[in-house]
Amino acid sequence: WEFDRSARKLRPTDAHLGQLKRIINTVLIDPSDTVAYCGTQSGDMLEVNVTNGRFARASRERFSLGIQCIGYTEGATNHVIVGAGDGTLAKIDTKRLAVRKAVQMMGSVTSISSHAD
Fold it and tell me: N or C: lower Cβ tally within 10 Å for the chain?
């Protein structure tokens, strides 16, 4: 996104994904504002460099019915939590974009919320 202060407009910026054609359902920006993790309708997670808008890599694992939501847990920046349309809730390592743990829920996981408890 680009913010034009004089015109008070927020304009989207296209990311360069190369040959990949994906519909992105959800986006999570890392705390350092350098990487965006994008959950797609096809079920894979993409890593995009925010500073130049270029595709970095994609996860090897795909989730059935797409990735519906992505979130961080409090204090942990080396993994993200992913909720999928088939009810899978998974912990993904951000260094390798690999699934560390996965649990099957009853129904689709549509949102993730964390709190300090």
Answer: C
